[in-house]
């Protein structure tokens, strides 16, 4: 960290700020009630305590007891730093504590500012939080007078070794468009709370300005957890690249690998698409199972199916995943729909790759991913950035995408084939009164691939790929039909083959 920068006390925000905030400046934190401002400011002050410095929280809008409740919910002690409560300043003014309580709106604005300055002189803090500007607006009753007092505060702290945050809850006319106030501050950070039609509220943070710092612009998702704000910096794939060998990754099924010219290469994404029930997830599990047997770590993000059902189904197909899960080689994360933001999901993926050393990832399914975040905008772009990051890390990624319909004409709810390096298509077809499955490779950017259509089967013998179906027609028109002889088809007698 640069000598002129200080940590905000929040690792995610520090990453967005590329190290922290320039010290001894005046900043503005704005956001509507419930956005997480108080929690972030408590983290900011607690960081000063960790550094062995004094900190001061000046509160006009909340009582000390209310602040203590917020701190206790995170396991913090409010006594770690000084709290100056202007709703009980009668003692400061020389009055008797047993007399009437003096509230901030009963004071002249100038007197309020003088009380704050006197407390700063007494405490000599390295960090100060002033909460909130809405009370100052009410006291001033005039925009010009209000801005003059804010300027006076800035001038008071100028030259002091103090970093100051002014908090604005935007409830008394502050709509975030107060350009004059923004211009007075060295930096502006905005917190937002978005209420969705269904599911948990989404929260995000944006650094609107910060003089002299090349911060990561744009919105960044965050959640409020016990212990503070968990901020997920927006993923920029270009900033994450490491060298790797783009070798083929085998599945353990020779015929399946032949379709992709030896298997998908490291640092590529394979889309497995087709109607429900054709075996898309099973193909991804086959590759993950083979990776774990080689000692490579993998993870599957399960949006649609319960983990218990997935494990039982894999075992029925001769893939016992339990030992790999118990050893920590394979992680299966059940994603709760409507409780996850794109930023949090990307952060989960990054932790698996950077902390666990995961080499293979499956997302089951893209339909579930999109359904879990129905009101999010630009989801495909965010997914594209995530896949670019995984490719640059040398991770093999499988995307499971269920097409709408079972037989006949198929179509996807969202065309995401362009984000994949390879596309495996599965289809149902009928022959001699039986429902069968076909598999083919539509594209493979990483190299040559087989252009034949083969029969595909998943049963107690595991994943099996049959010989090319020369007399098979109509698979790409949406009405697949087999009109050849019976002998080339896979039957139960082939189990021992």
TrEMBL record:
Coiled coil: none annotated. Residues 4-245, 247-479 form the KaiC domain. It comes from the Bacteria. Its EC number is 2.7.11.1. InterPro entries: AAA+_ATPase, Circadian_clock_KaiC-rel, KaiC, KaiC-like_dom, KaiC_dom, P-loop_NTPase. Keywords: Hydrolase, Kinase, Phosphoprotein, Repeat, Transferase. Pfam families: ATPase (PF06745). PROSITE patterns: KAIC. The keyword Isomerase does not apply. This is non-specific serine/threonine protein kinase. It comes from Sphingomonas corticis.
């Amino acid at each position: 960290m640069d000598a002129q920068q200080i940590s905000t006390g929040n690792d995610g925000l520090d990453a967005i700020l590329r190290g922290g905030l320039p010290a001894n400046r005046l900043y503005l934190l704005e956001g509507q009630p419930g956005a997480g401002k108080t929690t972030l400011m408590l983290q900011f002050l607690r960081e000063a305590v960790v550094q062995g410095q004094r900190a001061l929280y000046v509160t006009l809008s909340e009582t000390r007891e209310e602040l203590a409740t917020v701190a206790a919910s995170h396991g913090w002690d409010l006594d770690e730093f000084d709290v100056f409560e202007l709703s009980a300043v009668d003692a400061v003014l020389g009055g008797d504590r047993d007399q009437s309580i003096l509230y901030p709106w009963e004071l002249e604005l100038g007197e309020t500012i003088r009380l704050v300055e006197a407390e700063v002189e007494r405490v000599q803090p390295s960090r100060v939080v002033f909460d909130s500007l809405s009370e100052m607006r009410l006291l001033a009753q005039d925009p010009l007078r209000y801005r003059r007092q804010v300027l006076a505060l800035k001038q008071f702290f100028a030259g002091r070794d103090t970093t100051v945050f002014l908090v604005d809850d935007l409830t008394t006319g502050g709509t975030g468009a107060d350009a004059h106030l923004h211009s007075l501050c060295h930096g502006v950070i905005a917190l937002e709370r978005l209420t969705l039609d269904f599911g948990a509220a989404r929260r995000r943070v944006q650094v609107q300005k910060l003089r002299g710092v090349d911060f990561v612009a744009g919105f960044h998702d965050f959640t409020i957890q016990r212990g503070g704000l968990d901020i997920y910096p927006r993923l920029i794939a270009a900033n994450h690249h490491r060298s790797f060998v783009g070798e083929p990754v085998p599945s353990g099924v020779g015929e399946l690998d032949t379709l992709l010219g030896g298997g998908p290469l490291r640092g590529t994404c394979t889309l497995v698409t087709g109607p429900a029930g054709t075996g898309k997830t099973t193909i991804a599990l086959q590759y993950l199972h083979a990776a774990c047997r080689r000692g490579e770590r993998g993870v599957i993000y399960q949006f649609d199916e319960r983990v218990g059902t997935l494990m039982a189904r894999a075992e029925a197909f001769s893939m016992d995943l339990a030992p790999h899960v118990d050893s920590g080689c394979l992680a299966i994360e059940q994603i709760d729909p409507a409780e996850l933001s794109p930023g949090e999901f990307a952060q989960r993926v990054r932790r698996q790759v950077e902390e666990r050393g995961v080499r293979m990832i499956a997302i089951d399914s893209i339909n579930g991913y999109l359904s879990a975040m129905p009101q999010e905008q630009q989801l495909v772009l965010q997914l594209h950035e995530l896949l670019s990051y995984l490719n640059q890390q040398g991770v093999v990624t499988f995307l499971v995408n269920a097409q709408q319909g079972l037989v006949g004409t198929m179509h996807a709810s969202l065309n995401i084939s362009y984000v994949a390096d390879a596309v495996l298509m599965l289809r149902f077809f009928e022959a001699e009164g039986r429902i069968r499955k076909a598999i083919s490779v539509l594209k493979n950017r990483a190299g040559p691939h087989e252009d034949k259509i083969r029969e595909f089967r998943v049963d107690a013998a595991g994943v099996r790929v049959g010989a090319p179906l020369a007399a098979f027609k109509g698979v790409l028109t949406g009405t697949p039909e087999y009109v050849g002889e019976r002998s080339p088809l896979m039957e139960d007698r082939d189990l021992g083959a």
